[in-house]
Amino acid sequence: MEIDRTLRYGTLEALRFFLVQKLVADRPGPSLVKWLEQVDGTNIKEKILSFKMGVAAEDEESRHETIDNIGAMVSMFAMFCSKIPGYWYTPEDFKVLADAVSREMETIGNTWKFWVVTAQK
Q: What is the pTM of this model?
């Protein structure tokens, strides 16, 4: 990923690209039901949730918590990836991404979509 990808696609889109394409290529959320069916899970229940983040959040507490949490996520990936020799996403790339995510959350906000899936075996 080039640093200018943030400018072309939006900050959170750049983070989503990093997370989905580079870390979890087989997106777990949409795949969870299929995976549970493959291991003979029963009573499978899926609920897709979403919530607004940053300035788009429903209340002040959610605004602060979502900004802090996504910032912590970027920091965590930066820390782990910095331990991989020659990793393609440099510490400077992560710094640029963290600053851009923080700025975007404070000015635009976003929506986080995720899957909650339960099953029995």
A: 0.65
